Amino acid sequence: LTAMAEQQQQFYLLLGNLMSPDNNVRKQSEETYDTILGQTKITFLLQAIRDASAAEEVKQMAAVLLRRLLSSSFEEIYPGLTLEMQTVIKTELLTSIQHETSPNIRKKVCDIAAELTRNLIDDDGNNQWPEVLKFLFDSVNSDSVNLRESALHIFWNFPGIFGNQQQHYMEVIKRMLVQCMQDQANPQIRTLAARAAASFVLSNESNTALLKHFADLLPGILQAVNESCYQADDSVLKSLVEIADTAPKYLRPNLEATLQLCLKLCADTNLTNMQRQLALEVIVTLSETAAAMLRKHTAIVAQSVPQMLAMMVDLEDDDDWAMADELEDDDFDSNAVAGESALDRIACGLGGKIILPMIKQHIMQMLQNRYAMLPATLSDKWPQTSPRPSKRNSMTR
């Protein structure tokens, strides 16, 4: 027992050195870590995660390494473990989620549980870890906000967790998400439930019947997009961009509400530039992935054009910028570049015949606005030989 405790302490030291700012110390520690057998790694990493006396950064490092180990080397390590060891891993993970007091570590342990489940769905879609499903159902109905959060986080991370039982549990899944999206007392539960619902939709993008069945969850997702944006959280908005990109048909029954919300967020200068650009990205992406659907809502598209034009003239007053030969990295995230890229993409997506009249209608108006004259003023300073380069918006979808 003493020898084991000593080894564990050495392992903690190793975990600490893996985070060392000194390259040599870190490289040496990585080499030592790589020589440890897989089963031994799992044992020590699990102990570190479950050790209440261990420093938070050590537990965090252990959680990251265990998830990475299951992700990259599952087939090499896990099947070779004894049945008893496999059971210990499953039990310890679920126990850790229930008793961990640090939200950060708890979230990382949920990631490990999701990763393990992902690997325990066999070729026929059977989930070889039925206890995790029971844990999910018990947690989502628990009085503990932490446990409800954990259940949603696991489901968000791995929406395929039900395997071939998904159809059987369809109503239960839907009820679980609706119930959590209506949790008035806990905004973080509503946000996480909306992200989980979006993740489930995305993982079933080609299942038309399922998308139709879950269509009535979209208003709740849109509400969570709106709420979370004003809490400085754009995670649900990013999920909406992904849906527009991958499963645009899901938005069809509530397309007008989706577009109106994105238009409102895009126009709100109290939000960050990135949030406003993401809201615009939903509309622009739909012009590329569902042009026919969007052409039925030209009135809303017409309202988005002045937003793009306003972004294009949203230039920071910087004397050096006009003389610069190349754009800085920051410039590619600017409203000016995002607005220009969006207008270009929506014109390509919906066609110039639709967009050009909308642009012409607003240009004259804008030219009378003194603020819109700023680019013309700046152009006097630009060297004729090096016009400002244009580049597509690099915003990640």
TrEMBL record:
Domain IPO4/5-like TPR repeats: 102-261
Keywords: Cytoplasm, Nucleus, Protein transport, Repeat, Transport
Chief location category: cytoplasm
Domain of life: Eukaryota
Gene3D superfamilies documented for this protein: Leucine-rich Repeat Variant
Cellular component GO terms, alphabetical: cytoplasm; nucleus
GO biological processes: protein import into nucleus
Cited Pfam families: Importin_rep_4, TPR_IPO5
Transport in keyword set: yes
Subcellular location: Cytoplasm; Nucleus
Designated name of the protein: Karyopherin (importin) beta 3
Taxonomic source organism: Sander lucioperca (Pike-perch)
Gene: kpnb3
